[in-house]
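Forwarding the complex inputs:
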Amino acid sequence: MTSIEAHVQQPYKYGFVTDIESEVVPPGLNEDVIRLISAKKGEPEWMLDWRLKAYRNWLKMSEPHWPNVKYGPIDYQAISYYAAPKQKPKLESLDQVDPKLIQTFEKLGIPIEEQKRLSGVAVDAVFDSVSVATTFQAELAKFGVIFKPISQAIREHPDLVRKYLSTVVPTNDNFFAALNSAVFTDGSFVYVPKGVRCPLELSTYFRINASSTGQFERTLIIADEGSYVSYLEGCSAPMRDENQLHAAVVELVALDNAQIKYSTIQNWYPGDEEGRGGIYNFVTKRGKCAGKNSKISWTQVETGSAITWKYPGCILQGDNSIGEFYSVAVTSHRQQADTGTKMIHLGKNTRSTIVSKGISAGRGQNTYRGLVKIMKGADGARNYSQCDSMLIGDKCGAHTFPYIDVRNSTAIMEHEASTSKIGEDQIFYLRQRGLSSEDAVSMIVNGFCKEVFKELPMEFAVEATRLLGISLEGSVG
Amino acid sequence: MTGRGKGDAGRVLLDVKGLRVAVAGNEILKGVDLTIRDGEVHAIMGPNGSGKSTLAQVLAGHPAYEVLGGSATYAGKDLLDLDPEERAREGVFLAFQYPVEIRGITNSYFLRAALNSIRKHRGQPELDPIDFLQVLEQKLKTIGWDDTMMNRPVNEGFSGGEKKRNEILQLAVLEPRLAILDETDSGLDIDALKTVAQAVNQLRGPERSFLIVTHYQRLLNYITPDVVHVLADGRIVKSGGPDLAHELEAKGYDWLRDAAMVS
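Prediction (whole assembly, two chains):
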C-alpha cells in the first residue's frame, strides 16, 4: 500500500444507538399512515388535505434515475414513517426531557442543557420524527424572531406557514419532494421580522436513531424585508447494515433587502468500507430571492451518507438579488454523491456565484451537477462558476455536468474547472518538512477547500475542518 | 578529505556504505560510499542519469525508492529505518528540485506547522503565530530577504527562482543538521543563483553539513565545497577538493565515465 492509500479508514464516530423506548408505527405507506402522522402532530384539517394531495401526486410519480449513482430498489412499504421517543408530547421545560436524549445530543457535541448551551447559537434538536428541544426560544421572541419545530409552527402560526409552505418547492416538484410533503414529521420553522438582524446563529441538529425508519425533515425559513439570518444544520445516524432514507425539503424565502445564510454540515452514516449500510440522502433544497436586493447563500460540507442527491438552488426573482453556493463534497469508501446547484435568474442584474469542491477517495464517486439558467427578462445577469475536483488514490472518480441555459444576450457567464490528484510527491514534500502523512493530507485537503470553509460561521469552520480530517483518515498511508 | 581545516577530528554525521537503490525495478545506485562530518559541505556532481537526485531522494526517504542493500547511518541512527517525517524531525532537510504547490495554505502557516512538528520532536514548546513571526523575521534578516512570499500560498504561482528561494528560506527556518540541496541551481538566472548562494553561505556553520547535488559547476563558484564527488553510473568514481569541480567544467564527464566502465 502506498502512503496515499492508508488514510480514509477511521471508524464513524457518531454510530452509537441510544437505548430509549420509542413509539414506532408499523412499516408501510398509505393514507391511514398519513392521517396518523397528521393526528400525532395535532395538525389542522388544511394540513392533512395538503399532505394527502401530495401523496396522491406521489403515487403517480416515479423515482428519478438520472443521477450518476447506483443503488438497489427502495421498498417504500418497508419503511416506518414515524418514530418518536416516548415522552410527554410537548415540553415547556428541559427538565421534562428524557436525560437519555440530553445525553445523546451532548455526546454529539450539541449541548441543549441551559448551563452548557453553545453561546450565540440557538439549537432545535430533532430525534427521529420529533423535535425534543429548542433552545433560546424566549430570548429570540424578544426580537420577534420565531424559531420553533415546524409541527408547532403549523399549530401556532398557521397563516405564516400557509402563506409560504410549498411556494418554493411545490409538492409535486419531484418524487422525493412529493414523498416528503406527504409524510414529513419535523424540522424547523424560522421567521425573522422586518428589519431584524437575528442576534443568534440558528441551528437544527437531526439525529436518526430508530432502525427501519426514514427521516423526512421539513424546514421553512422566511426572512422578511431588510432582515438577516444565519442558519446551520447538522446531522448524524447510527451505524447499521441497512440503508435508511432521509428525504428532506428545505424552503427559504428572502423578501426585499433580506439575507439568508444557510450552512449544512452533513455527516449521516456513510456505510462501511464495502458499501454496506449508510443513509440515502435525497434532498430538495431551494431558496427564493423574492424581493429586490435580497441574497441567499448556501454553504454545504457533505462528508456523510452512502448516497447524496441534492442541489440547493436559488430562484433569483427580485432585481439585483444574489445567489451563492459554496460546497465541499467528500466521497470515500463506496460513497456516491451527485450534488450541485441550480441558479435560476429571473430578475434584472441578478448575480450568482458557484464554488464547488469535490474530493474523491477510496472507491468514492463524486459528481457535480449544476444548472445556470438566465431567463429572457434577466438583463445584466452574471454568473461565476468554479468546479474543482480532487482525487485521492486511483480507484475513485470525479464527474462534472455543468448545464448552462442562457436566453438573454446581456448575460455574462464565467466557468472554471480543475481536476487535481493528491500525489505521492505532494505528501512526501510535506513529510520531508516534518509533518505526519495524516497532517499532510489534512493540510492539502483543507487548503483545497479554503474558499468554501471561509464562508462557514466561525464556530463551524473548525468543526468542518476536523470532520474532513476524520472522513479522509486512512485514505492515505 | 578535510572539512574546512578541522581535519578528520569532526564527528561523522552521515556515513553511507555500499548503498544500492532501485526505482521501478531499475538499479540506479550501485554501491555508494559517502562520509560527511559535522560542518562539512560536500558537492555531488555527475552527468544526467548518474543517480544524483536518487541519492538525495533516498536519503530523505522518498517511498518510491527501494533500498536493495548497503547502509546509511545518520547521527548514530539507522537513517534508512526512519520514516521521512522522522528524518526531517531529526534534522535532515531536502531542498527539492521541483517543490510542490499547496493551494490555499499560506507559506507562513505551512512553515510554522513544519517548525512546530520539529520543535515538538525536540521537546521544545510549539510557537504561536506571533512568536513564529519573530523567528521568521530574524531568519529573513540573516539571509537578507523580505517577507513578500510569506502570505502567498505555498509555491502557488511562484516563478522557478521564487520556488528555489522558498526552499532555502525553509532551510533557514527549520535549521537542519544535514541540508541536501537537489539541483537548487537549475533554472536560476545568474542573479538568483548569487542570491541563493549567499543565503546558503550565511547558513553554513560547524553544526550544519551540506550535500549539494548539482550538474554544473557554476553554483560552486559561489559556494565553496570542502569535498567534491563525481557520481557516474551509480557509483562515486572520484572525490577531490574544490578544484575537481573546475576540472570537470573544463573536461566534461566522459573521461570519468569511461574510467568507471573500465573499473
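Chain B is about 35% helix and 25% strand.
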